[in-house]
Amino acid sequence: MSSAVSTSTHTSQAVLSLYRSLLRTSRRFEGYNFREYAVRRTRDGFRIHKDETDPRMIEMLIRQGEEQLAVLQRQTAISQMYKFDKVVVETAPKKNIVPS
């Protein structure tokens, strides 16, 4: 029973670490649209599978996530070689909106 709990904890930590790494890497895109797409896709992918309990499926999803992380790392490296002009939503001043 103890090993099942530690395995579950290890898996949870691995999933959380992978999620954070994917988000961190996604935020390194130079282009706003690429960056937002990668962040949204990461969040949506984890949200879809948040209730998964099958250990084999979880391991497969972790492997897929690690592959996606490697792809993102390559893509962000390439993205940083090319500078993009900021889009309107990035350059617009942030206004303090007071609820009425």
Brief characterization of the structure:
GO terms for molecular function: cysteine desulfurase activity; molecular adaptor activity. Residues 13-70 form the Complex 1 LYR protein domain. The chain is an all-alpha fold.
Provide structural commentary:
- The chain has 100 residues and is mostly helical.
- The chain has one domain (11-91).
- It is 71% helix and 0% strand.
- Helix 1 runs antiparallel to helix 2 and helix 1 (2-26) packs parallel to helix 3.
- The N and C termini lie far apart (55 Å).
- The mean pLDDT is 86.
Shape: flat
Would you list the SSEs in sequence order as H and E?
HHHH
Head-to-tail CA distance between termini: 55 Å
Strand content: under 5%
Q: Based on DSSP secondary structure assignment, what is the total number of beta strands?
A: 0
Low-confidence stretches: none
Task: Work out the helicity level.
Answer: over 70%
The computed structural class is mainly alpha
**What integer is the average pLDDT?**
86
Tell me the radius of gyration. 18 Å
How many discrete domains?
A: 1
How many helices? The count is: 4
Note the main sheet.
none
Features:
Complex1_LYR_LYRM4; Complex 1 LYR protein domain-containing protein; molecular adaptor activity
Helix and strand layout, with pairings?
Layout: H1 2-26, H2 32-48, H3 55-79, H4 88-91
Helix pairs in contact: 1-2, 1-3
